[in-house]
Amino acid sequence: MGDRVYWLAWQLAMPGQARRVWEIVEAAGGPREAWEAPTEQLAAVLGDRGRAAEIAARRHAVDPAGELGRLEADGVRVLTYADGGYPEQLRTIADPPPALFVKGTLPPGPYVAVVGTRRASPYGRTVAARLAAGMARAGVVVVSGMARGVDAAAHRGALEAGGQTVAVLGCGPDVVYPREHAALRDEIAASGALVTEFPPGTPPEPWHFPVRNRIISGLSRAVVVVEAGEKSGALITADLALEQGRDVLAVPGHVTSPLSRGPNRLIKQGARLVEGPEDVLDELGIGTIVCGPEGKPPLPRLAPDEERLYGLLGPEPVPLDVLVARSGLPPQAVAAALVYLEMKGFARRLPGPAYLKREVEW
Fold it and tell me: How many CB atoms lie within 10 A of CB 210?
């Protein structure tokens, strides 16, 4: 199984602690080397012998190969960082989970997150549902956190439009939370996916939700904020999105409503104002805006970073590090743009990784 079983082992031993896992793995030279490292080596990396001893004890309690079989028997798919099916967009963040637990099937992108307060007003729920429905009809996968309020409205809007949606959980894939979302959970798994970095049986602890928010934004090309108070978790997601190089958009609200303070502040700070799904599609170049000749399907529009990368590609493979150097863009932005060039049919990924230009004709 190579590194696969060791990435799963680390996820089982230290769920929700990806940053610390990556620190250990990079210092040791790989997931297997880190898993087999003596306690003294862990202590040297962590600078804390007590913490190292605790991690060593957790390793002894984990049987990753046996757990993998049990998970698959229970219908939980495991996607490790070593797997080809691991979401490429998520790989570009600073601390991707070593493994994901998935119920359902992750659809092909593009992904856009719609997030907001659990205490949404009728206005917020209606806007979230309409945005999600419009984007879903255009082929966008709507991502959210399956919480009450805006999240649930976004998931339902996508489903009612016949589209696909992904819910990122702050608990195990077999745990129903909130309880009233049992039916919604099943619908999402049937047409899209439930995704979490927490193993089966993990209850929803308060600290899990800020941690899972980085996955919501990490999976997505952009994050749209619909109603959020000044200390809302949705604003944490927006901040994470900016750190990850994602676009942040916001729906304006009534100036007298406390739930409008979050999105209105984002708009003041430069987030694009969203009145409908076409604003999101236009901002990201996801919509089919460029028209082709009569009788031919329109070509997808390229975002500025995508245009820059496409111009650097040719008939011969260009290594990823060369593209980063020539483009002048941050590595995360290059990785994200290349993912979307592949999705839109403008680029082909080769081992290495390296990329070829694909000529798109009407």
Answer: 14
- Interhelix angle 64-73/4-13, rounded to 10 degrees, is 90
Does residue 291 have a pLDDT over 60?
Answer: no
Chain-centroid distance of CA 25 in Å reads 22
Specify the range with the lowest mean pLDDT, choosing from 19-23, 182-186, 229-233: 229-233
Give the Cα separation of 168 and 173 in Å (integer). Answer: 9
Q: Is 113 in contact with 220 (CB distance < 8 Å)? A: yes
State how far the alpha carbon of 274 is from the alpha carbons of 4, 131, 176, 234, 282, in Å.
41, 9, 32, 16, 10
Q: Which of the 8 DSSP states describes residue 95?
A: S
| Sign of the four-CA dihedral 239, 211, 188, 190 | positive
- Neighbour tally for 58: CB within 10 Å: 14
Side-chain half-sphere exposure of 226, counting CA atoms within 13 A: 32
Q: Indicate whether 8 pLDDT > 90.
A: yes
Q: pLDDT tier at 67 (50, 70, 90 boundaries)?
A: confident
Assessment of whether the complete model's pTM goes beyond 0.90: no
Domain boundaries, the chain: 4-103, 105-284, 304-357
**Separation of alpha carbons 219 and 351, rounded Å:** 22
CATH topology classification for 105-284: Rossmann fold (3.40.50)
The pair of structure tokens assigned to 190 is 């049937």
User: Do the strands 77-80 and 99-104 form a parallel or antiparallel pair, or are they unpaired?
Assistant: antiparallel
**Per-residue pLDDT, 300:** 57
- pLDDT score of 295: 42
- Give start and end residues of each alpha helix (H) in 174-229: 182-191, 208-219
User: For the packed helices 331-343 and 304-312, what is the interaxial angle rounded to 10 degrees?
Assistant: 80
Place of tokens 């942040």: 248
Task: Examine the pLDDT at 234 and tell me if it is beyond 60.
Answer: yes
Cα–Cα nearest to 344, from 357, 331, 329:
357
Q: What is the pLDDT of residues 124-159, one digit of tens each?
A: 999 999 999 999 999 999 999 999 999 999 999 999
Specify the CATH class of 304-357 in words: mainly alpha
